[in-house]
Every structure is written in C-alpha cells, then in structure tokens.
Amino acid sequence: MNYEKTKQLTKKRWAVLVASCMINLCIGSLYVWSVFAAPMADYLSSVTLSAITASDLAIVFTIANSVGPVTLISGGMINDKFGPKWVVFLGGLLFGIGMIGSGFAKSIPSLMVSYGLGCGLGMGLVYGCTINNSVKLFPDRRGLVGGIATASYGISSVVIPPIANVCIHRMGIIPTFKLLGIVFILVICIGAFFIEKCPEGFVPAGYEEKMAQKKNGGKDKKEHTRIQEEKNWRQMLQDPVFYIMITMLTCGAVFGLMTISQASPIAQQMIGMSVMSATTAVSVLALFNTLGRVAAGYLSDIIGRINVLTIMLVSSIPGLLLICTSGIGDVVKFYIGVSIIGLCFGSFMGVFPGFTADQFGQKNNSVNYGIMFIGFALAGYLGPTIMNQVYSASGNYSLAFVIAIGLAVLGILLSLLYRRKTR
C-alpha cells in the first residue's frame, strides 16, 4: 500500500470497528437464551401437551455454541481470500433466518435446527470476520480492539434482555423471535457493506515511528507480547503450545457459559428471585462480561496476555465459591459472584483473539482463531451439560460450581506450563 492509502485506511478503520461492533451487538443475542428458554418451554409445553422445562431446552444453547467453529474456520478461509463483506452478509442472513425460524418452531428438534444450527452457524460466519478483521486493522492496539470488538458482542446480553422481555410480555415469545430476526437481518446485512478487508501487512500511519520511539526509550512493547513468525493452521496444530492454549480457553470459558446458560433459573431457584429480578441478574452478569473484555484487552497490551489470563483464572475461584455457597435470600452475595464470573469470562473472550495472533502470527489469524475457538465450543457443550446433569441428579446447581473451580485450577496450572514452554 502507498502512504496515502495507508493514511486513509488508518482513519477509516475506526468506522470499520464501529460497524463491526453494531453487527456483533446483534449476533451476541445468541447468549440471551436464558431469557428465551422459559417462555419457549411454556409455549412448547402447550403445543406438544407435554411438560417441557427450560432445562430440557439446554441442548439448543449447547448446539448453538458447538457449531460456531465450523463456520468460523470455513468463513475465515473465505475471508482471507475474498474479504469479510460477503461472509458477514451471508452470516447475517443465516442468523436472522434462524431467529425467524425459531418463531415457527413447534418442537425441540425444530428449535435445535433453527436456533441451534441456524443462529449458531450464522454467528460463526459473522463473528470470525468482525473480530479478526478488526484485530488486523489495529496491530498497534491489538488487545484493546479485540476487547472492544468482543465487548460489543457481550453487551448484547445487557441490551437485548429488557427489549426481549417487553416484547415477550406484550406479544409472546413467537412474534418476538420473528421481530428480532427481521431487525438483525437488516442491521447485519447493511452493516456488512461498511466492513473493509485489512490488506496484508497493513501498518497504520505513524505506527513504525512510535514503535521506534518506544524501543529507544527502553519500553519496547514486545516485552509484554510474544510476536512469533507467521504460522498457518497446519503449523499451529504441530505446535504443543496450541494445545495448552486451547485447553486453557476451555477451562476459562466453561464457568462463564455454565452460568450464562442458566443464569435466570439459578437466580430464581437458588436465591429465590422473581423473574424480573433474575433478568436483572442476567444483565449484571452480561455487563461485567462486557467490562472484562475491554479492560482485560487494554491491560493485556500493557502487562501481557498470559498475565491477564492467569489473574482472571485465580480471581474466578472466589466468584464461583460465592455462587456455590449462596442460598435463598443471599442476593448481594450472588450478585458479587456473578459479577466476578462475568468479568473473568469476558477477559478470556477479549484477550484470546490477540493472544492467538501474538503466538501464531497475524496473517492467518482468521483461520487460526477459528480453530482455537473450538476450545470455546467445547466449553459451550461442557458448561450447560454439566449444569443440566448436576441439576437433574441433585435438584440444585452447587456441585456444578465445584466442578468449575476444579477447571479453573487446571487453567492456572496450564498458564504456568505455557510460561515454561515459551520461555
């Protein structure tokens, strides 16, 4: 790129980031499932004339989380060759159609196809492009921008629940799905035309000079971030560090997805909250999830990705203990616990795009991060499944949080192993 084009893109990249954030706000509604689950269970119970609970629908959320990497990887390959615009457009169509299709669901299997497969696959196409393209456009602020881009995805769980609850109360769950689907198609598909592909080797205007000044001042950014040679997905899979990182991601995501998937039922059954109060708890969890993504992303640019991840794994343990030991009426204790869990989970989501790019290079990060995201998908299966199985066996959720503490400890040990392997 010549200097003028570089200068133009350096300014335009902020508009691309804003468009990406608006799009992510829509696809982040995938994680509002706990708000949809109870009214949808009631609706299906009336249609099928059988007793269906929100826990019975946990498989829908599990599928939606599990299929994301399929399109994250395939969409990443298309993105690297042709750019993100049409990938995001098609992903937006698929996501919106999946949401609309949920408004026609008459059974759990049909909901698994519409919400689980449709929304899950659509989310993967969109998320991979918006996150990785944004990170590539900001090599000077990789952690912060990764945090902002993923935070816009997470804040959907703050913005959408109140809107969804009003719509469900006034129209019912079925019209709500259809309305949201139409709105999401419009926002994502229009926003796609504001997304511009980051050219290979793009360096923002003035960035090299700033780096030179930092080096001369003895504050080289490389002290805190490991920038390795460019590796494609095959080379990444041959690196033992990849398996440490992906397992660490799974450990850090399980407790978050476990809590998010059943946040409203947990608040109602463990703490005795009303439906509206439980919805507020979901929003608090989502708010701290969002704050964690931005704050951890920014902090990781300063003290390093692995340092932030280790701090969050350690911090998650008291948060899990607070929820685990909460009972009827322990509202403050519960709120503190979900706030900590949201903050720690969000940190993993905000840091890992930049962490992957640091370790395996920026060039192939669309595909590499898509593969790394399999760790998140595994957590999307394990978290709700553990929660559902524990509740079915014991009638409460406490043991699930004990299991999550064990996984957090495993994550801490893996972070120490990562340091040893990359020393």
UniProtKB/TrEMBL annotation:
Localization per record: Cell membrane
Transmembrane spans: 14-36, 48-74, 86-105, 111-131, 143-164, 176-195, 241-260, 308-328, 334-355, 367-387, 399-418
Major facilitator superfamily (MFS) profile domain ranges (all copies): 17-423
Pfam family membership, one: MFS_1
Family matches, as InterPro entries: MFS, MFS_dom, MFS_trans_sf, Proton-linked_MCT
Alphabetic keyword roster: Membrane, Transmembrane, Transmembrane helix, Transport
Bilayer disposition of the protein: Multi-pass membrane protein
Entry annotated with the keyword Iron-sulfur: no
Cell inner membrane in keyword set: no
GO CC, any one term: plasma membrane
Domain of life: Bacteria
A molecular-function term among this protein's GO annotations: transmembrane transporter activity
PANTHER family linked: MAJOR FACILITATOR SUPERFAMILY (MFS) PROFILE DOMAIN-CONTAINING PROTEIN-RELATED, MONOCARBOXYLATE TRANSPORTER
Identification of the protein by name: Nitrate/nitrite transporter NarK
